[in-house]
Amino acid sequence: MTNWTYENTSSKVNWQGKIVSIQPRTRVWRYVTDNRTHYHLGYNFFIEGHSSDSKKQFTVAISEKQQIKGLFQVGDVLEGTAWTKKYEEREFADYYRAGSLKLLDRSNDNIKVMPPPCIMMPPSMQTYEERGARILSKSLWETKCFKCVWANMANVEIQWDFDRDIKKYRFETFCYGPKSCKYYKMGRARSVPYKNRGSALDDGYLDELCTEGRDYDE
Known about the structure:
By secondary structure, this protein is mainly beta. It has one domain (about 15-210). It is about 10% helix and about 40% strand. Strands 1, 2, 3, 4, 5, 6, 7 and 8 form an eight-stranded mixed beta sheet that branches. Strands 9-10 form a two-stranded antiparallel sheet. The N and C termini lie far apart (about 65 Å).
């Protein structure tokens, strides 16, 4: 009998397109309802255009350093290179390790500064870190909140077994926007499984801890 070994591989692509949304790129570590830690890694650019592997809508992960240099905003048209993701279940963005970024056309649209949704030059990773995030309804993330700089689709890592360091992965939506936002809804509580236990529920309690440093209108 032949044993086949499959490896997760990544390939280089070229891409070009218009930015339709810029959101923070994050990784969230969960352990039952005792811990929900957000790590802020850079930005996700949601692009409408084309890539050399035939995608017309795709997400490109950009570093904070690249954003500081380019000052990219919604409406800009870019081209660049990147690498496809290795782990479908762990990585939300389609392309990582972006390079050779070139601005082809600068948006002349007036950037909205009054939310909601808040469409502006994205803030720094430190700003997101200091504000903290709340659970956001996925349906709102897909619709009214999609273009908002405070919306977020996170790569989530659940610590399922500490002894053997086994993790489970999924994606979750969060919001860094003002607590007073008229669009905001938490949606369903999030279940957090652990080996040989029933799932715990993150029903918003951790939101209060994550955002305790800011007021209702911040």
